Amino acid sequence: xxxxxxxxxxxxxxxxxxxxxxxxxxxxxxTVMSAVLQMMHEDGSLLVPVVINKDDDxxxxxxxxxxxxxxxxxxxxFTDFYEVERGRKIxxxxxxxxxxxxxFLGLDDIDxxxxxxxxxxxxxxxxxxxxxxxxxxxxxxxxxxxIFDPNDITGLDCEVIVNSADPLFADGGGVDHDIYEAAGxxxxxxxxxxxxxxxxxxKVTPSFNMPSRYIYHTVxxxxxxxxxxxxxxxxxxxNCLDEAKKMDVRSIAFPAISTGExxxxxxxxxxxxxxxxxxxxxxxxDYGMRIIFSLPDKDMLETYKGFIEYCKQxxx
Length: 316
What we know:
By secondary structure, this protein is of the alpha/beta class. The chain contains eleven helices and 14 strands. The protein has a seven-stranded mixed β-sheet, sandwiched between helices. Strand 1 (45-55) and strand 2 (58-63) form a beta hairpin.
């Protein structure tokens, strides 16, 4: 991928900044951080001003630190050349987002990394950068847009979490129990009014006390051993992703749907989840979606990762 195409992917960050600036909602601010994290995982780049140093060993580069009108020094970064040209002329070079965040953490006299400082900007503090680095260190990223996270789904920083629900929202003691408990008492009256949810259908409620904004409630198939079980499970994932796009959602977290009481074996369930997510991302390549699989069970995490390795071997 050439650098121009690489920078086009930063539309995900720009759209998130625009949304956050308009709403000033804390969850929209977290969406910007999630977009930056995604670009770290995907080896994305930002444009940074540099100073060219000439010495006996040849030219070298260092960050060019700027000051605002109040004399506060900051490290600037730009999502694209249009954002660079909106302000004063300044020389920039592309640099990996992961490297920028890590280098920023090493600049003791600079408190902020500001993305697109000439226009609708977003400031990342040292604490925010540290959180990004720690998140990137523990999350397994397989391919663009897909993340495996070993943490409980109820605490994930994303816009939507998916509940593998019972048709009548009965507490099954699995991930649904964790979600109902974490959301708090306001959720159950809403579910009572919804009455029921059909197989692979999507019902939407707020997340209430959780970091996410919405819960998508869907019913996965009970495993029967028939081939159509996979199609029904794929519909759960596809319908949730389609609903997310309709709602302009850019990050969604799934549990391993139907692998609990519904009895779906982990290996075929993992293959359906990953292949369906990949298919959706390929069809919506310009949208910019972060798909998270919440896999706190170590065996399930290894199953998902094992399927990815199998796919890589088949395609090599």
